Every structure is written in structure tokens, then in C-alpha cells.
Amino acid sequence: MSKKNKFNNTSSSPLVYSTDPNYIPASNDEVVETLAITEQPLRVILETKHRAGKTVTIVYGFVGNEDDMNLLGKALKNHCGTGGSVKDGEIIIQGDHRQKVFQYLKQKGYSKAKL
Question: Region 12-35: what's the mean pLDDT?
């Protein structure tokens, strides 16, 4: 028999009860539109801070939903032949791959990408 966690709440709202008869709960289902490839203001930087001396290439500035950013991150990791992750609105590629990433973005049509 499994134990249920008393903090396992299916609702993400901290509101338990409202006495306001006109209360309408806020929706967290905001849909973010992904900008066109030619309009994405991407920046490619190199960072070593807070990473135990390891060097990573970071692509930030992506405007759009998380699924599209995950697809771009996967394509960049595959192109560079290395690992990485996508979190907090940044695509993190392990190692110094600034030129590879920049050239890939330009090739794919991200004309506003900058080093």
C-alpha cells in the first residue's frame, strides 16, 4: 500500500477558499508565441562562473515557448557533438563552441544572432 504525501496537491494555486462571489481564478495556461527565426534576438556568450571552472557556451534571448527552445537546444547540441541543457530561458552547450553555434544559427536563418 502506497503512502500519500500530504503536500501532493494537484492544484498549483495556493488559494484554498475565496468568499468573493466575483472571484475568477487566474489561468496559468498562458501561450507564448515564438518569434520568427529572423526576429529572434539571440546572443552567444562564453561563461565559466559558478561552474567549477568548466567552460560553457550559452545562447540566451530566445523569445517563444519552451518546446521550440528545447528543439533548438537539441539541434545545437547535436551539431556541436556535445552535451548541454535548456533551462531558465538559456541554452547551455558544454565547452567553447561559440563559433560553431554562431555559424549554425546564421545558417539556419537567425539573422539577429550576435556573439
Answer: 74
Residue 3 lies in a domain: no
Q: Report how many domains make up the chain.
A: 1
3-state secondary structure of 111: coil
The residue segments making up the domain with residue 93 are 37-107
Residue 50 CB burial class (10 angstroms; 0-12, 13-18, ≥19): exposed
Kindly state whether residue 51 falls inside one of the protein's structural domains: yes
% residues pLDDT > 90 (the chain)? 63
Instruction: Give the burial string for 22-46 (b: 16+ CB within 10 Å, else e).
Output: eeeeeeeeeeeebeebeebebebee
Q: Does 4 or 23 have the greater pLDDT score?
A: 23
Closest CA to 96 of 111, 82, 109, 106: 82
Mean pLDDT of 89-103: 96
CATH number at residue 68: 3.30.780.10
Whether the pLDDT of residue 8 is over 70: the answer is no
Judge whether 59 lies within some domain.
yes
